[in-house]
Amino acid sequence: MTILTIRTVPDPILRRKSRAVREVDDAVRKLAHDMVATLHDAHGVGLAAPQVGELKRLVVLQLPEEDNPRILVNPEITRRDGERDVEEGCLSVPGYLGNIVRSERVKARAVSEWGAKIRLTAEQIFAQALEHEVDHLDGILYLDHLKSHEDLHEVGADDESEHEHDFAAEVEDEGLMKSRGEKRVLIAGNGSDGIAEIKGEVIVEATEQDLKRLSGG
Ligand SMILES: [Zn+2]
Q: Where residue 37 sits, what CATH number does that domain have?
């Protein structure tokens, strides 16, 4: 099995829609198993094919309480119930966590790696992971579910005021958009070119004043 490269923001492939898998063949199984190896290597809970550069509707999950990984081809969420506040991260958005709302319970259908139809009822982290990974297949990141910039924080940041300051500093130094030569605060959105179309605050070529305003100062 091969450890694949995980694409990270702002890689435009993360914003594209994946295509259904027509036939679950050896190539799909190989990709799925490589994705499982990659997921284990990264100590993640879930990974979707676009995160490794393949626009196929395929996700793998490794739930903490389960021994075996789950491979889901063409997963579809058919029902969502309840709401709960969760903290969420993504292997494609390293270094950040966000507070968002996910469903308490979901029902889903998918196809196994052997082509069998599967029906699933998921709760808690399983439901959260399913929603997160199926979102990836539609080019949606958890960042799109954030309600405000305060809901996103760097891993390791403590209190909120601290975080705002740190985050602004992050924008200046190593903003998520740096590879485009732009300075933005990436908090939400689902831009067609792979770059977030921000629902909240956008800063391109931030000035000191912008950063101060952002950090509430
Ligand atoms: Zn993710």
A: 3.90.45.10
User: Do 15 and 194 contact (CB within 8 A), yes or no?
Assistant: yes
The one catalytic residue in 133, 162, 201, 208 is 133
Q: From the CA of 1, how far away is ligand 1's center (Å)?
A: 21
Tens-digit pLDDT profile for residues 77-111: 999 999 999 999 999 999 999 999 999 999 999 99
Separation of CA 90 and ligand 1 centre (Å)? 4
Half-sphere exposure of 168 (CA within 13 A, CB side): 18
Active site residue 113: no
Query: How many whole angstroms from 213 Cα to the centroid of ligand 1?
Result: 30
As beta bridge partners, residue 154 has 96
Contacts of 174 (CB under 8 A, 6+ apart): none
Query: Residue 123 above 90 pLDDT?
Result: yes
Provide the phi-psi class of 164: left if phi over 0, else alpha when psi is between -120 and 50, else beta: alpha
142-182 pLDDT per residue, tens? 999 998 888 999 986 554 433 332 333 233 333 343 333 33
Q: What is the pTM of this model?
A: 0.73
- How far apart CA 110 and CA 133 sit, in angstroms, is 13
Structure tokens at 44: 């993640």
* Number of separate domains in the chain: 2
State both tokens at 161.
């005021």
Domain presence at residue 4 = no
Q: What is the pLDDT of residue 28?
A: 98
